[in-house]
Each structure stands twice: as C-alpha cells, then as structure tokens.
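Appendix B, Record 12. Input sequence as logged:
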Amino acid sequence: MKILLVDDHAIVRAGLRRLLSAATNAEITEATTGRDGLAATRAHGFDLIVLDMNMPELGGLELLARFRQQTTAPILVLSMHSEPLYVTRALEHGAQGYVSKNVSPDELLTAVRRVSGGGRYVEGEIAQTLATQTASTVSGLDQLSARDLEILRLLAAGRSLAEIAAALGLGYKTIANTCSLIKAKLGVTKTADLLRLALKAGVS
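Logged structural output:
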C-alpha cells in the first residue's frame, strides 16, 4: 500500500510514519505543504492520502477540493479541529474519513484500514457530536461556501487580503468582494466580528 502523508509538522509526520510502517508495511511518501502534496499525487498513484487541512498558505477545504479534483485516492483527514461544521464540510467535499489529532493510535489504524479499503470512518467522539449537534447550531457559518470558509480561515490565521489572493490564485478585488459578501451573509460589518465567529467555530 502506498500512503501520502500531508502535514507541515515534522514530528507529526515522523510519528505517523513509524505507526503506519510498523502496522501496515506501507510505502510512505511525505509532503510538507499542500502544493507539494498535490504535486506528489500528479506524479504518483496512492492508495490513501492522510491529510492535515490546517496547512500554511493553501489549506482547508480549498486544499481538500483540489486533491479531490485530481485523484480518486481515498482521503483521511487528520485534523486538530473536531467542530461539527468543519467535519461536515470535509466529508461533503470528498473526504472518506475524519479523525482528530487526539485520536488513539489503535483508532487511527482502524480509520486507515477502513478508508483505504473503500469504506468511511469518523472518529467515535466526533461521530457522537455530529449525531447530536448540527453545524447551524454551532454557528451561522453553515451558509458559507467552501471558498468563503477558506478565506475566513486565512483571515483568522492573520493573512492579509493580498496574501490570501496569492495563496488561492485569485485577484485582490475578488478576495475583497468575497469578504464583503461573507459579512453580508453573516450580518456583520467588521472584520473583527468575522474573526470572532471563525474562532468560535474552529475555522482557524
């Protein structure tokens, strides 16, 4: 089995490599950025992609959508976020599985086997939360598109509009106009209010 690990933290990749190599005899490829991960999928075929969506520059749902456009390999999201909104959107945009970085090694291996075998898997605690709480009860962000959420994530990470435009390959005016539309959708007028909502929902 060939697995691609996409995570910007070296210690996380090293731990995952040891765990997966010992348990599955998989051939592991590592990528430190979303763009490197996308390049790897263009050059090689993988049986599974383990993806951290909280990456610098290109990340989040935008990154997941781009992976989904260029590969049919199953994607297991391994994220620091366990909020219902983020989990639901990831699954809607093509992830076959979702676990948090607090997951136990045994459950992570269960998720890897299930997803690489063509199934779906959501970490037990997250699944329980999803069953009792919808995204709309967590925040008003459920009405935003994947692109809206990605721009919001980058804003919350401290990026300027110009930096966001460069990361997403869009024009500055497009980003500025989208920010205005996001504010209108959420009924706020200040960027600070957008950031507060983003942090509350874990879109950061």
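The chain has a mean pLDDT of 85.
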